[in-house]
Structure to design on (250 residues):
């Protein structure tokens, strides 16, 4: 009986805590949903890793299996959702010069934040991998206009596997770079932004984009509330909160 009372007390505390956290995140009192309890489950079972601070741009061919995201192991929840079988991505088919420009561009996008961008496979296992190359169909995606895909839950997804379909984008440096920026930011919990100059936008034509320090509505073709219920998102500030500012020693 004591154990049951203790469990009920803990459960009540968890629910109360979740309500407060959700109030702080969204700015309004809201009912809890399944995703809130999943996040608690993940914390209680030890899946409380922080954000991966290395973004690995993979140039060569790679094979991915379906499952919970694990970049080092080559497992992808996107593959699980789209194909549910192993998929082979062909890698970058553009020029060496264009590849170097893509790496530099992505590095510049994330320069304000405490994260490293590299095209050399990291020695450890805590990184995000971006499979750069191919087309949506290689992954089982039927929409041929898609430039990239990433897992998205509204929260940080450690060790995520992200896809940027460079062949679909004709290996153009800035479209590929900005697609990588958007998809990686999804893995860090960012929603789409309704602002033409922001990396997280679907709007076009917009010219060169960045993570803009401005509170804007979320949305694709029209404005909407953001995934977490908040009326706006500031992509720059959101990444800053997740990753922190760039360290001088990095």
């Amino acid at each position: 009986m004591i154990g049951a009372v203790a469990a009920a007390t803990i459960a009540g505390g968890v629910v109360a805590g979740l309500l407060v956290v959700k109030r702080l995140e969204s700015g309004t009192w809201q009912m809890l949903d399944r995703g809130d309890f999943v996040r608690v489950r993940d914390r209680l079972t030890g899946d409380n890793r922080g954000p991966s601070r290395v973004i690995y741009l993979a140039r060569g061919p790679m094979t991915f299996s379906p499952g919970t995201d694990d970049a080092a192991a080559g497992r992808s929840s996107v593959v699980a959702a789209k194909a549910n079988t192993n998929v082979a991505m062909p890698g970058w088919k553009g020029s060496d010069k264009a590849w170097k420009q893509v790496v530099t561009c992505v590095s510049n996008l994330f320069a304000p934040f405490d994260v490293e961008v590299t095209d050399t496979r990291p020695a450890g296992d805590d990184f995000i991998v971006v499979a750069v190359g191919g087309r949506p169909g290689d992954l089982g995606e039927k929409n041929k206009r898609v430039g990239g895909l990433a897992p998205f839950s509204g929260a940080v997804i450690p060790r995520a596997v992200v896809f940027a379909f460079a062949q679909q984008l004709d290996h153009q440096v800035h479209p590929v770079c900005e697609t990588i920026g958007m998809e990686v930011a999804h893995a860090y919990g960012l929603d789409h932004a309704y602002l033409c100059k922001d990396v997280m936008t679907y709007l076009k034509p917009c010219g060169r984009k960045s993570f803009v320090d401005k509170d804007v509505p979320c949305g694709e073709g029209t404005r909407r509330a953001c995934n977490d219920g908040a009326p706006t998102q500031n992509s720059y500030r959101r990444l800053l909160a997740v990753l922190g500012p760039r360290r001088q020693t990095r």
The longest strand covers residues 54-58. Residues 1-48 form one domain.
